[in-house]
């Protein structure tokens, strides 16, 4: 496995994905509330080792891999990359440019229902803050104007080995990615 090439290809898709969902959210008016980072506090946010590889490679290149592994081994359910106030939810991602795919969907995104109609998955806070905008966007949603989660996940998964795609709580996925990068760093130059 050429891990550097794999991460490079994944990062390109993640960047495109982030831009697509971000444009949809800002153009539709269903963007995250200013300064809000509450999604990152949910214990059920899950990712995969594969999606966390860009973050792990960056950490390896910064020379702090062992430090992060130690931190993750002691972490609770809140993503270790999040910095902020747990009481209010105000905070930010310290790994924003290399965050996994799931983090690029937070806020508002599209999915297919069982009849293959496009539905919107929207954060509760955004729903409560912008009910009129949500109604309008919901009425006008189509496959063409709404990015669909499963389509983007298919692209991501097509780049990965199947064993790296098991969904895990966020910190376990990050830890798995760091351990994998640490393993490959023994045999390949990852700079
Ligand atoms: S990686 Fe960043 S955006 Fe994703 S859950 Fe962690 S802090 Fe939040």
Mind explaining what this structure looks like?
- This protein has helices at 3-28, 53-62, 65-73, 124-129, 131-139, 149-157, 170-185, and strands at residues 46-47, 82-84, 91-93, 108-112, 118-122, 168-169.
- With 191 residues, the chain is mainly alpha-helical.
- The protein has one domain (3-185).
- A two-stranded antiparallel sheet has the order 1-6. A two-stranded antiparallel ribbon has the order 2-3.
- The two termini are 16 Å apart.
- Residues 40, 45, 79, 81-82, 93, 95, 99, 103, 170 line the site of iron/sulfur cluster (SF4).
Question: What's this model, at a glance?
Answer:
This protein is mainly alpha-helical and 191 residues long. It has 7 helices and 6 strands.
Descriptive labels:
191 residues, mainly alpha, two-stranded antiparallel sheet, two-stranded antiparallel ribbon, 7 helices, 6 strands, 45% helix, binds iron/sulfur cluster
Give me the secondary-structure topology:
Layout: H1 3-28, E1 46-47, H2 53-62, H3 65-73, E2 82-84, E3 91-93, E4 108-112, E5 118-122, H4 124-129, H5 131-139, H6 149-157, E6 168-169, H7 170-185
Antiparallel strand pairs: 1-6, 2-3, 4-5
Helix pairs in contact: 2-7, 3-7
Bound molecules: iron/sulfur cluster.
User: What small molecules does the structure contain?
Assistant: iron/sulfur cluster
**Overall 3D shape:** globular
Strands of the largest sheet, in order across it? Answer: 1-6
- In total, the number of domains comes to 1
Number of helices: 7
The count of β-strands is: 6
Provide the structure class: mainly alpha
The proportion of residues forming helix, as a percent range, comes to: 40-55%
- State the separation between the terminal residues, measured CA to CA: 16 Å
Q: Secondary-structure element order, as H and E?
A: HEHHEEEEHHHEH
Oligomerization status of the protein chains: single chain
Low-confidence parts lasting 5 or more residues at pLDDT below 50?
none
**Largest beta sheet, briefly?**
2 strands, antiparallel
Radius of gyration: 17 Å
Beta-strand content estimate: 5-15%
Overall average residue pLDDT = 95
């Amino acid at each position: 496995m050429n891990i550097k090439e794999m991460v490079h290809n994944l990062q390109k898709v993640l960047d495109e994905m982030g831009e697509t969902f971000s444009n949809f959210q800002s153009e539709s008016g269903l963007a995250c509330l200013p300064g809000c980072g509450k999604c990152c506090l949910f214990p059920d946010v899950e990712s995969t080792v594969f999606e966390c590889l860009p973050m792990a490679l960056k950490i390896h290149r910064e020379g702090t891999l062992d430090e992060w592994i130690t931190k993750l081994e002691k972490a609770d359910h809140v993503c270790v990359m999040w910095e902020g106030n747990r009481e209010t939810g105000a905070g930010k991602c310290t790994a924003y440019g290399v965050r996994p795919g799931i983090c690029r969907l937070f806020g508002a995104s599209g999915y297919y229902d069982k009849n293959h109609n496009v539905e919107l998955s929207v954060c509760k806070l955004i729903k409560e803050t912008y009910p009129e905008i949500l109604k309008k966007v919901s009425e006008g949603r189509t496959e063409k104007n709404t990015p669909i989660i499963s389509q983007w996940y298919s692209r991501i998964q097509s780049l990965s080995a199947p064993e790296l795609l098991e969904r895990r709580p966020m910190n376990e996925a990050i830890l798995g990615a760091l351990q994998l990068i640490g393993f490959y760093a023994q045999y390949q130059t990852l700079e």
